[in-house]
Structure formats: structure tokens, C-alpha cells
Design goal:
Length: 248
């Protein structure tokens, strides 16, 4: 019970951390679910353990060729590259330069240095970058549409061919259940529920309860805001992936 492994156990953990069942937490169940969603979304967007680099295989359809964009299913966060785009990048083509080099020099690989082979491949890659260039990518995660402006959809693309999409994808908590036990997520989700609790109680600020007790939801709200700011600052300084800079 102390180690959350599901959405339900994470919810109970956060409520117990706030004082339940000793203290009545004045937050609706739907509000708790919303705050858990907020916590999971923040975790996926800013924590390096919230995403994983994957290579997705995508088969091109006739509809995609006509509309000239690819629909990428959630939960892809960002796309790093799409390949291959040309026969020059494949070593399975017998007319490819890399294929011929590997075929003719393979018998020497076990007895001589591979430095020449590496240098030739780097040179071929440089020529390809100069003459062909890198394929530009335009992807908006809100529409799930991947555009490839440099691709000639009329001649370069054949229905049924495959593209490999290199991307960052958010973890699915239902399958990667260790996400629910992440220390940052537990602290952050608890603070979000606490702020919701304070927001609910602040509507009754100053109401006198039996026994002379007065509600002070504003204090709970402000304390939760302070905790959230501190957690987010720690998150950005310790757990966020570094920014990728484009050079050239």
C-alpha cells in the first residue's frame, strides 16, 4: 500500500499524505483525478524519466501520400528524425557504394584496420549531406501531423513503403507502473491536490464552524502554491533534459 503501482493506489497515497482519513479532504473524486492527470502530464513533459527514445516503424498509405503528411499517434512528444529517404542510405542495395565497399573489403576486416572503411563512409556521408542535405521535419504534437517539406510525394514515395521515425515518446503509466512510485510525481501530485483543497475551502473563508473553528482555505492554498513552485524549480534544475541546440 505504501508503494503506488496503479492510478488508484497513487490517489490513496496522496490523500493519506494530506491527512486522510484522520482529516476530511474536501476535494471531489473527479478533481483528484484531474490533478493526477496534471501531474502525469508535467512528469512526461519535463522529467527525463517520463519519456523514452524509440524508433517507430510506419507504413505509408495512399491517403498520406495524397494529403502529403503523416499522422503520428500519441503519445509522441517530439520527433528527432525520419529515415531512410534515399537508396544511398541503405547498405542492402548492390549498386550502393557502401555495399560494394563492404563486399570487397569484408575479407580483410578481421586482419586489417577498419580506419579506411570508416573514413570512406564518413566522406560519403559528407557528400550526401552537401548534395542532398538533411530532410527537414515539421511536427506539431497538438495535431499529430508530421510534415516532410523536402520530400517529393509525387515521385519519392511509394504506397506500402516503410519509414523509421526516431522520436521521444511519453511513458504509458499503465504498462510502466513504476511511474506511479516516482518520488517527484508523488510529491507534485500531492501538492496539486492540496492546492485544489485550499481553493475549495477558500470559497467559505471566514465561515464559523461549530466549536468556534474558522475555515482557512487561503492558507492551505498559499502553502500548496509555495510547495508547487519549489518542486517545479527543483524539477527544471535536476530532472529536465538539456535543450538541443541546432548548429550550422
Amino acid at each position: 500500500m505504501a508503494t503506488p503501482t496503479t492510478r488508484a493506489t497513487l490517489k490513496q497515497y496522496c490523500l493519506r499524505r494530506l491527512g486522510f482519513p484522520v482529516i476530511d479532504i474536501n476535494v471531489d473524486d473527479d478533481q483528484v483525478e484531474d490533478r493526477i492527470d496534471d501531474g502525469l502530464q508535467y512528469f512526461a513533459e519535463y522529467h527525463f524519466d517520463g519519456v523514452e527514445k524509440v524508433y517507430l516503424k510506419h507504413q505509408l498509405t495512399a491517403a498520406e501520400i495524397t494529403q502529403e503528411y503523416i499522422t503520428v499517434a500519441n503519445p509522441v512528444v517530439s520527433i528527432l528524425g525520419v529515415f531512410p529517404f534515399s537508396e544511398g542510405s541503405s547498405t542492402n542495395n548492390m549498386f550502393n557504394a557502401r555495399y560494394q565497399i563492404a563486399l570487397n573489403e569484408f575479407y580483410n576486416f578481421s586482419s586489417v584496420s577498419m580506419m579506411d572503411y570508416v573514413n570512406v563512409n564518413q566522406h560519403l556521408r559528407l557528400i550526401e549531406q552537401i548534395l542532398v542535405g538533411e530532410q527537414s521535419i515539421e511536427y506539431n504534437r497538438k495535431t499529430d501531423k508530421l510534415y516532410l517539406p523536402g520530400m517529393n510525394w509525387g515521385s519519392d514515395v511509394i504506397e506500402g513503403n516503410y519509414l523509421i521515425i526516431e522520436c521521444w515518446r511519453a511513458l504509458e503509466p499503465e504498462t510502466s507502473t513504476q511511474v506511479y512510485n516516482d518520488l517527484f510525481l508523488k510529491k507534485y501530485t500531492t501538492a496539486l491536490i492540496k492546492r485544489q483543497w485550499g481553493s475549495n475551502l477558500s470559497k467559505f473563508e471566514g465561515v464559523l464552524l461549530p466549536g468556534g473553528v474558522t475555515m482557512n482555505g487561503q492558507a492551505i492554498y498559499e502553502a500548496a502554491n509555495t510547495e508547487i513552485d519549489k518542486i517545479e524549480e527543483e524539477m527544471q534544475s535536476r530532472f529536465e533534459l538539456p535543450v538541443d541546440f541546432a548548429i550550422g
